[in-house]
Write a structure and sequence with these properties.
363 residues; alpha/beta; 18% strand
Length: 363
């Protein structure tokens, strides 16, 4: 599943050099300035959304793909290599694209659907550069590639796992705000739970609620508290930073519960297992993250950067990454052998089109 130094560029070499010596990342200097000038055509830049590059989600995953690309092609972080520009608010989106373009980065990525308009505007301004929108679609612009994910497929697998693992026969889903993107997680998880419940002859109650945004961890904590009180023992979230509230509540409950009464959380976008570490009432280290639904933003950024490197930038195309290409997946985490077996069987059935996962929840 968002300080920056604003530079005024002039034609003088001194000012231009100073401007590109800094990122939009809280005024920190760029690392690794040892890229050659002729590598500029292979350089890539990442414009984050307002969650920032260390969001335990999309931006962080995208940056991981950048670092892999840089390592593979002997490019360093910095000019003529790879870099990120952090946005503290939506007002930073377009200035960051302008800064990345003027600094000479050839392929520039915008992470998250909130950057769609900024990507489109930047691509119109600079037709000689490549632009990428992650998690949305921009049509009719030949220098823009769109990358999306079949998150419903991985969410279905999480639903299969939840239905298999639940001991109370009650599970929950918490979304951020209603949108086509979050619908994928909601619809996939819901169908996975229902299909697996039918397969196992279980009657499972599925609780479903939305926070209303992607940042209010306190609201999510209250929702999770309510769901756990209604006997849910596994909750999956697709709610960005607000999801911290789910992990906080799960850990707080588990600190005073015996292992047999443990409640679980399912992470999203990246492996969020580190957010589930706690100590039980006996002081023993425990973890309450059952699994995480992985959105392979790193797979997409690495793939598209490589295509551009080879002179095959997919401008004007819509790329969709699913289970078949490992563009989405779930972590093994603490899933039991039985539940993992069921999830692997379902994975293959989805790849073989034997299971078709909906992209919107049923009305």
């Amino acid at each position: 599943m968002e300080s920056k130094i604003k530079k005024v560029f002039t034609v003088t070499t001194m000012i231009a050099a100073a401007a590109i010596a800094f990122t939009a990342c809280s005024g920190k200097k760029q690392g690794g300035s040892g890229n050659s000038g002729n590598s500029a055509k292979h350089s890539i830049a990442l414009i984050t959304d307002t969650a920032g590059v260390n969001d335990n989600s999309f931006n962080q995953s995208a940056w991981r793909g950048f670092k892999k690309y840089g390592s593979e092609h002997n490019l360093n972080r910095g000019r003529n290599g790879y870099q990120y520009f952090q946005s503290s608010s939506a007002a930073d989106f377009e200035p960051n694209f302008d800064q990345a373009s003027k600094a000479g980065y050839q392929t520039i990525f915008g992470v998250g659907y909130s950057l769609k308009d900024a990507v489109s505007a930047a691509a119109k301004k600079d037709s000689k550069r490549n632009f990428v929108i992650i998690d949305d679609v921009i049509k009719g612009q030949k220098n823009v590639a769109s990358a999306n994910f079949k998150s419903e497929q991985a969410s279905y697998l999480a639903g299969v796992v939840a239905a298999t693992e639940t001991k109370t026969n009650t599970v929950g889903f918490i979304g951020g705000t209603h949108s086509d993107i979050i619908d994928l997680f909601d619809a996939g998880f819901t169908r996975g739970v229902k299909d697996q419940a039918k397969k196992l002859h279980k009657k499972i109650t599925l609780l479903n609620q939305y926070v209303g945004d992607f940042t209010s961890a306190d609201k999510e904590k209250a929702i999770a508290q309510s769901m756990y009180a209604k006997k849910a023992d596994i909750i999956f979230h697709a709610s960005g930073l607000a999801g911290n509230g789910l992990f906080q509540e799960a850990k707080a409950l588990n600190q005073n519960r015996p292992d047999g009464k443990k409640v679980w959380a399912i992470g999203v976008d990246v492996d969020q297992s580190h957010l589930g570490n706690y100590k039980n009432k006996d002081g023993k280290k425990e973890n309450c993250v059952l699994t995480s639904v992985i959105t392979g933003v790193d797979v997409a950024t690495y793939d598209i950067a490589n295509r551009a490197y080879e002179g095959k930038f997919p401008g004007g195309q819509q790329l969709v990454y699913g289970l078949k290409t490992n563009g989405v997946s779930i972590k093994r985490g603490q899933i039991s052998d039985t539940a993992w077996k069921y999830s692997r069987e379902a994975r293959q059935q989805i790849i073989d089109n034997e299971i078709k996962v909906p992209i919107h929840p049923s009305k």
